[in-house]
Amino acid sequence: MGSKAQSGRKAVAGRPVDEVKRQIIVEAACKQFFNHGFAATSIEAIAADAGVSKVTIYNRFGGKEGLFTAAVENECDNMQHNLSIDMDDELSLREQLVTFGDNMIRFLERPEITRMEVHLPVEVEENPALGKLFLDAGPRRMLRFLSRLLSESAKRGEITVSDPDQAAELLAGMFKGMADLDRRFGQLDPATAQQQTDKRIKSAVDLFLRSHQSQN
Questions:
Q1: Of the ranges 62-66, 157-161, 209-213, which one carries the lowest mean pLDDT score?
Q2: Residue 80 pLDDT > 70, yes or no?
Q3: How confident is the model at residue 82 (pLDDT cuts 50, 70, 90)?
Q4: Do the Cβ atoms of 150 and 144 come closer than 8 Å?
Q5: Residues 74/30, Cβ–Cβ less than 8 Å
Q6: Are 68 and 33 in contact (CB under 8 A)?
Q7: Of 213, 210, 205, residue with least CA distance to 171
Q8: Coil, strand, or helix at residue 25?
Q9: Closest CA relative to residue 71, chosen from 61, 86, 81
């Protein structure tokens, strides 16, 4: 257990000790929550994986719910760091949307997220607040990112969008398509999945842009 914590510190050398320790805890929480679910995960197990005390976790995150939120937000941060499209003026809007769609699907298809989706619905029956924690920290956060991208594009006159939030939701739905259900029920063909994903995302973006062409 201790060796994991040490390797984590080396991997992020140069950062403040408190920030390093927080990240080690969050990564341990991600592993536990996504592999075993919220109910089956204990603060003790996370503390052991991270090489810290339970008191440290409670002091930093306030409890299991706060740590769960931090774990989901960490996964979303990983996705947004991979995107880096909101700062890249060299990409066209179409390229930005295709990049977002591709990274969104990659995020949702990660084994950790798939396992979490198996555990979470059962746990939400016992603790509905857990569903809100997950949605606010994950999917809704991604939609806000996409909505902001569309809103900024509309302000530049590239597209016409009266309701960026709704437009983001509809576009994200097209990105997922029926493949989302195929994935959940084990019907996704690995040999053709990426090719079909690329085709679906590009088609969704092209349809969206045609529907929201600027009238200027």
A1: 62-66
A2: no
A3: low
A4: no
A5: yes
A6: yes
A7: 205
A8: helix
A9: 61
Q: Which region, left, alpha or beta, applies to residue 84 given φ > 0 means left and ψ of -120 to 50 means alpha?
A: left
Closest Cα partner for 75 from 44, 120, 29?
29
CA–CA separation, 139 and 192 (whole Å): 26
Reported as a single tens digit per residue, the pLDDT across 121-152 is: 887 887 888 788 878 877 888 899 899 999 99
Question: How many C-beta neighbours within 10 Å does residue 93 have?
Answer: 19
Residue 189, judged by CB atoms within 10 A of its CB (0-12, 13-18, 19+), counts as exposed
Q: Which residues contact 169 (CB under 8 A, 6 or more apart)?
A: 143
- How many Å apart are CA 77 and CA 57, to the nearest integer? 20
* Closest C-alpha to 138, from 57, 63, 68, 39: 68
